[in-house]
Specification:
globular; 11 helices; mainly alpha
Length: 218
């Protein structure tokens, strides 16, 4: 019997409602996983146009236009970063379902830019050349880690899901190994999800632990 779920608009709304009833809030886009009883974010946006339009169908209130002072805006951004377990991006604020989180324009108005606000809560700005350099092993570990989180061998569009600011992009995975099919062959040699240690950790901690393990092995 096939395990493939054919998601309709009604079944998606029902799954979102169940998640909200259990957790007291809507899911983040990156929480839209089979393990949470939800379709992936791509399925939701394909059915409804955007993630927030699906939430609008559930009459979930979203009001981010009230007046914030600087401290309130920074406190909200810090709280949002702790939920994401990574540096928030502008698109995260645009797609956020949290009523207490200001939109991106609020940070532009209060601080000049979202980046400047992030610096004030402790995030280091990206360097022009980028601070993120990966070995081949790092890229493969990331692909295996994300596959475990999603519950299936990666498809190319899955790399749009950025679960940490220091994740390799889809183009990084493709360029590193010459093609997407080559990357998949190396990350999943038997066409199956590879079990890796410490996959329950947040992405940043996961990579740190594996880099440390490689250092001691060498």
């Amino acid at each position: 019997m096939s395990n493939i779920i054919h998601w309709t608009e009604d079944s998606i709304l029902g799954a979102l409602r169940n998640f909200m009833d259990f957790n007291g809030r809507p899911p983040l886009m990156e929480e839209c996983l089979k393990s949470n009883g939800l379709p992936d974010g791509t399925t939701i946006t394909r059915k409804f146009g955007t993630f927030n339009k699906a939430l609008d169908r559930l009459k979930y209130p979203r009001n981010k236009n009230r007046n914030y002072n600087k401290q309130e805006a920074l406190d909200a951004l810090r709280k949002f970063a702790s939920i994401l377990e990574r540096r928030p991006r502008g698109v995260d604020l645009d797609e956020s379902v949290f009523v207490w989180l200001p939109n991106r324009q609020v940070y532009d108005h209060l601080f000049g830019s979202l980046t400047k606000a992030l610096i004030l809560i402790g995030f280091v700005p990206y360097s022009p050349r980028g601070l993120r350099k990966y070995s081949d092993d790092d890229v493969l570990l990331f692909m295996q880690y994300l596959a475990i989180r999603l519950g299936h061998v990666l498809r190319e569009h899955d790399l749009r899901i950025r679960i940490a600011t220091d994740c390799p992009s889809g183009s990084t995975c493709t360029k590193r190994f010459g093609s997407w099919s080559n990357a998949i062959a190396k990350a999943f040699p038997d066409g199956k999800i590879v079990k890796v240690s410490f996959a329950w950790l947040p992405m940043r901690a996961f990579l740190f632990v594996h880099r440390l393990m490689r250092r001691f092995e060498n």
